[in-house]
């Protein structure tokens, strides 16, 4: 055991995650010291609400309102940024790096957008920026991608990386309810925020997918290239039809190596119900990584919450404690690949992405409709995997009836599908906007 | 990128795993170098079958029959031991350490039995012994336990860590067949070895559980203290009854922190069918880790095979490449905790282990049997969770009929259950040896 005094940590922001970090570090301090070989102590906390901060840390740490006082303190070795967002958090992280501090952050938005700038600054300064908590909360998925699977040429990564939306989708399926109803319930239960936009529109998942894409393929973070589609338009009917066809609908963050580039996309996705990831319910997260040597691996756990996220933040603190006096050359590269060995693989435009599709068409129940629709698909070279035609269920004007026609297609380029969709939508017998959901076999 | 020449690796044994390591290192050499910052090259291979070895490595590496020639070669930085077993492998690993080589090994048997001696020698010599491939093949579970979850007081670890037995159990369930029939099929398909003893008797799983126990709780490896029960006595009927009660039967390696010590055991286990791990099928592996901060996490992937195991071996090679010139103080401790901070928590005897139980009694179908059986349980203080009584299905001598009585109990100490089992077995109406399978809720 080293006789070094504890490494000193300054927290910027002590809300849900920060208080978890403080509490777990206190509770498990002996266990953590036995692992790290050195104590880890939060000795300074900056929070605008100094009263709340003091009520959490008591006399254990100095509390200040000004984050820059933490950065300026020469006794602080590691700065933990838990403020969130792109604004002041970005400035403070850059200033902490400039001051020679190692940084631990849970801020996926910041890294997905400004990661290149931040990692370059850290590299130049010889400090570490660790971010295990930025993706999938307590699941050590960054470590798996960056260290555990180094032997592999990663082929794809697909994850349920937003607990709020997975909770909503699970509830929609369990209870047969539509999105709006379940969102309100999720807000009441604290699973969704008052302003849930980042979650339900897929933006949070896209931040995380962007980071995993960089780690998997050795490319710079490129959030602006990500395709992002949320779950707000999903209907209970589609979840039910998918179930009948043997699929579950999950909001997946997907990044995939393809000819000429990398796919990077977030959207609702049909996944075969027998896949383990299809059975990840409620607010849980799971990430599947496919490598050429290891095959399929999956990582599952809580993707958010005070102590699960704190678990990841503290794992980073232990890593930094172990490595901060070591030669920077021996540290794990921020984005898994050495900074001078990054790839320039481009993120391919969505039109070139190839997936299967679930289509739901509201059609007039009359002869020739199926022939018209399948004829358009055939002419576009789109191969059909399954068709589900329901009995006519609604009487329209003048005694006409309507029905749902559900089609699963084999792999098709998005551009091809878009053209076919436009043609189908123009059919007079197609009575409502066609629902299109992408499908991945994940095999 | 470093200008250092490739780090030189010597392989001891180039069978299934060794050839996978060689092949993946060759195929992904550029990808691996971009991550590690330095090339990794197998330059020497020792195998008794030098002809086969040469046919695999060609001119890329020197092939010798004598493993000691590899250890004696001053150019070799890392020795990869893939011989297996406790005999010559132990000697060679100790000699490699003595010669100042870092060691990477997939040999769980060796480490579970002789780990203390080996890790102490490595510590004294300042070299690393890395063993990611020793547990759950390509799944980076050692890294998760040792680095990813350092914030946590680990509460328990439970894993499907033997692919052969999971394949057999999956087939027994799918096809309703008994053990012997499925074992023969597994042998024909290459999922079970000609001598399957280590797998089917639970010994291989116990080796791995022993290693996870040490990593989770900071205790020395103590394979001799593990309780080990295999799957050879399992019957299709029990798998079917378990299913009717909402459970699957899996061979689990379990290690758990309890009052006064640590449980360490391998046995067939009823697991609720809705748990993710209950849905791990075929030869796949999965490990669930419960930590006080992170909650439940699960790690899933291929637990064996040439390239999945190679994936773990190479991840270790990259770790060693990154850390071998660093101060030994900054390396991750072999058993997750610093050598001077190990715990002396004892492995508790099986009599004190507390679990639920599944009992199947073959009883005479006559009044009072259920009362007799439940009376014994009640007097022992054993609480019943569920009872399943089948209709009488068999006519015995003199027109008497028999039936299966299935009982699920709540948590009970094994010693208490043993006494109750003896009393029930002595009832004249209990007509065959009682089947007892342990049950874990894993919640």
Can you give a write-up of this model?
2 copies of one chain form a homodimer. Chain A is an alpha/beta fold. Chain A folds into 3 domains: 7-139 and 307-340, Rossmann fold; 141-302, Dihydrodipicolinate Reductase, domain 2 (2-Layer Sandwich); 352-439, Alpha-Beta Plaits (2-Layer Sandwich), CATH 3.30.70.260. Helices cover 37% and strands 25% of the residues of chain A. The first copy, chain A, contains 15 helices and 17 strands. The first copy, chain A, has helices at residues 16-27, 29-36, 50-57, 67-72, 88-98, 108-125, 141-148, 163-175, 179-189, 197-200, 203-217, 236-244, 306-323, 369-379, 414-425, and strands spanning 7-12, 40-46, 62-64, 78-81, 102-105, 129-130, 154-160, 227-228, 247-258, 261-272, 284-291, 295-302, 354-364, 384-389, 394-395, 401-413, 435-439. In chain A, the strands form 2 sheets. In chain A, strands 7, 8, 9, 10, 11, 12, 13, 14, 15, 16 and 17 form an 11-stranded mixed beta sheet that branches. In chain A, β15 (394-395) and β16 (401-413) form a beta hairpin. In chain A, α6 runs parallel beside α11 (203-217) and α8 (163-175) packs across α9 (179-189). The interface between A and B is large, with 70 and 69 residues. β12 of chain A pairs antiparallel with β12 (295-302) of chain B, so a sheet runs across the interface.
């Amino acid at each position: 055991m080293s006789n070094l005094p504890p490494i000193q940590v300054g927290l910027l922001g002590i809300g849900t995650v920060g208080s978890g970090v403080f509490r777990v570090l206190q509770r498990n301090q002996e266990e953590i010291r036995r692992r790290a070989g050195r104590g880890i102590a939060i000795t300074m906390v900056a929070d605008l609400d100094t009263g709340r901060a003091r009520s959490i840390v008591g006399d254990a740490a100095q509390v200040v309102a000004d984050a820059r006082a933490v950065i300026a303190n020469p006794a602080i070795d590691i700065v933990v940024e838990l403020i969130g967002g792109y604004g002041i958090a970005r400035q403070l992280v850059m200033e902490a790096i400039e001051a020679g501090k190692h940084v631990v952050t849970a801020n996926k938005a910041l890294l997905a957008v400004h990661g290149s700038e931040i990692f370059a600054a850290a590299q130049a300064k010889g400090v570490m920026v660790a971010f295990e908590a930025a993706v999938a909360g307590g699941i050590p998925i960054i470590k798996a991608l960056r260290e555990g699977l180094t032997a592999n040429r990663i082929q794809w990564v697909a994850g349920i990386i937003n607990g709020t939306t997975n909770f909503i989708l699970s509830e929609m399926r369990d209870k047969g309810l539509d999105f709006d109803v379940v969102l309100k319930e999720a807000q009441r239960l604290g699973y969704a925020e008052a302003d849930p936009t980042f979650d339900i529109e897929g933006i949070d998942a896209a931040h995380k997918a962007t980071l995993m894409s960089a780690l998997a393929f050795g490319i710079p973070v490129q959030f602006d290239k990500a395709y992002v589609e949320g779950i707000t338009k999903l209907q209970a009917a589609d979840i039910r039809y998918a179930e009948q066809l043997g699929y579950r609908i999950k909001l997946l963050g997907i990044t995939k190596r393809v000819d000429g580039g990398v796919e990077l996309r977030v959207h609702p996705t049909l996944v075969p119900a027998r896949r383990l990831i299809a059975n990840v319910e409620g607010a849980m997260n799971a990430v599947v990584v496919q490598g050429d040597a290891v095959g399929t691996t999956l990582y599952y756990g809580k993707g958010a919450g005070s102590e699960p996220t704190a678990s990841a933040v503290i794992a980073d603190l232990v890593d930094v404690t172990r490595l901060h006096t070591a030669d920077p050359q021996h540290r794990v590269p921020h984005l898994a690949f050495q900074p001078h060995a990054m790839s320039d693989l481009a993120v391919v435009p969505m039109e070139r992405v190839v997936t299967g599709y679930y289509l739901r068409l509201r059609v007039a129940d009359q002869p020739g409709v199926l022939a018209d629709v399948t004829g358009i698909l055939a002419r576009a070279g789109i191969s059909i995997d399954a068709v589900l035609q329901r009995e006519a269920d609604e009487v329209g004007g003048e005694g006409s009836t309507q029905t749902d026609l559900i089609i699963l297609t084999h792999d098709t380029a998005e551009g091809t599908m878009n053209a076919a969709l436009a043609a189908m939508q123009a059919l007079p017998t197609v009575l409502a906007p066609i629902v299109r959901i992408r499908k991945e076999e994940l095999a």
